[in-house]
Amino acid sequence: MSEQTLSRRELYREQTRAEIMMIGLRQIADGGAEALSLNAIAKEMAVSGAALYRYFASRDELLAALVVQSYEDLARTLEASAAKRHKLGPARVHAVAAAYRAWALAEPHRYRLVFSTRLDPGRLASDEIVLASQRSMNVFLQALGSLPPHSDATGRGVSPALAAQLEAWHQRSSEPALSPATLRLGVTCWTRLHGIMSLELDGHLHATNIDPALLYAAEVEDLIG
Amino acid sequence: MSEQTLSRRELYREQTRAEIMMIGLRQIADGGAEALSLNAIAKEMAVSGAALYRYFASRDELLAALVVQSYEDLARTLEASAAKRHKLGPARVHAVAAAYRAWALAEPHRYRLVFSTRLDPGRLASDEIVLASQRSMNVFLQALGSLPPHSDATGRGVSPALAAQLEAWHQRSSEPALSPATLRLGVTCWTRLHGIMSLELDGHLHATNIDPALLYAAEVEDLIG
DNA sequence: TCGCGTTGTTATAGCTTCTAACTTAGCACC
DNA sequence: GGTGCTAAGTTAGAAGCTATAACAACGCGA
């Protein structure tokens, strides 16, 4: 909370935590969340296994921290991709979608870590996770909101119940510029793109012999217009 | 392979295997794939832990068997839902989609087991898994193929590359009645519905405060017309 | 009926998480 | 500058897991 400079002790502590997380992240990148082992990290750091419990109360806590870190990394990546193309419109949607896909393909285990790691409910609702999620979502929403209004984006296919929930979301949103139609486009975009990435990463599209990149591109095109 | 009646020994063996799988499945249903423990199963069966290795060479082999079993159960469920509504058309698509969602919600851990369990490549490409996958897919394809032809189902938004791959799939498919357009509708249906179910089950849609059922219904509607 | 293969056993190695009790080392305060 | 408290490391150990090896006994099939 306090902004004052950290004491020497706290500084070392943060460094050690960072080192633990770095090694843990590499374990996950190599072998998935299952491969995360406090003991193995300790061995690599040349300390006893028990020492790490001074920094993380449990393996689960470290895992949760890595989920948060990865989610934030995804958010940063998407924000960077959007910042590069400062012009809005379809090109920006393409850029963000491409960045999303590239991140997932570059670090599949991390993508899985973020989206299909089951944490205890308390940790899942952690402020940092919700924040990172909103940051990522916002990048998509900003891009989608800049598209020329689509004829049936707000009308056809939206049930009254769904329209009401979108309206409620619109009301409490911190960004009043985002219309309910854009919000809807946002979740749809997210669920569709995630659907492809998730199945692709787990090899379930392999049997069809269809290049997932083509499916992905087609969905992006469909969402844009 | 041989159809001859099993010997007494083989019969008992199958029974024991089934019992192991039953208990293992319950463990997964309760606590996810991580909770699967040969030792715990043995304790529940009142045998030593080592005894189970006569029936499954490793924990991974048991896990793979449970993945297959669950996938087949999903396929059976979908087939049953289709069989109930013997009339084809939109109603059938609705029925199958609803059955898919219901299965996922009834046994979330099993859904995750099927779709986001990482098995070694050898096991993932197992004949039984591919078969169960095709069975499930076929139920959707049969239903989708019976829809009145949609104006831009085959034209707009399909890149030449994608069209070619769909054509190739069509050629080697055992069901010549399924047009490339229907095949495309099939994968799209799968990726979209899975996208929603996957995010919903892992709690990622919670932050939006939107009922996933409404999103799901909207996607089904969009796919149909 | 007899033998052999199947199925169980116990023992053990090696890994994991995590706790408890003890030692050391350094930061902070007087 | 000395001294004491606290943080950070240590080892020991419990309880759990997968998996293998060596051995005992049961029962099916010839």
Stretches of chain A where pLDDT falls below 50 for ≥5 residues? none
Mind telling me the C-alpha Rg of chain A? 20 Å
- Structure annotation, total helices of chain A: 10
List the secondary-structure elements of chain A in sequence, H or E: HHHHHHHHHH
Q: Please estimate the helix content of chain A.
A: 55-70%
CATH architecture call of the largest domain in chain A: Orthogonal Bundle
Amino-to-carboxy terminus distance of chain A: 46 Å
Q: If you had to describe this structure to a student in words, what would you say it looks like?
A:
- Two copies of one chain form a homodimer.
- By secondary structure, chain A is mainly α.
- Chain A has two domains: 1-57, Orthogonal Bundle (Arc Repressor Mutant, subunit A); 63-224, Tetracycline Repressor, domain 2, CATH 1.10.357.10.
- Helix content of chain A is 68%, strand content 0%.
- The first copy, chain A, has ten helices and no strands.
- The first copy, chain A, has helices at residues 8-31, 38-45, 59-84, 90-106, 108-115, 121-124, 127-145, 160-172, 180-201, 212-224.
- In chain A, helix 9 (180-201) runs antiparallel to helix 10 (212-224).
- The longest helix of chain A has 26 residues, at 59-84.
- The mean pLDDT of chain A is 92.
- Chain A binds a DNA duplex (30 and 30 nucleotides) through residues 7-9, 12-13, 16, 37-40, 47-51, 53-55, 58-59.
Summarize the structure.
Chain A is mainly α and 225 residues long. Chain A contains 10 helices and no strands.
Q: Which key features would you list for this structure?
A:
homodimer; 225 residues; Tetracycline Repressor, domain 2; globular; DNA-binding
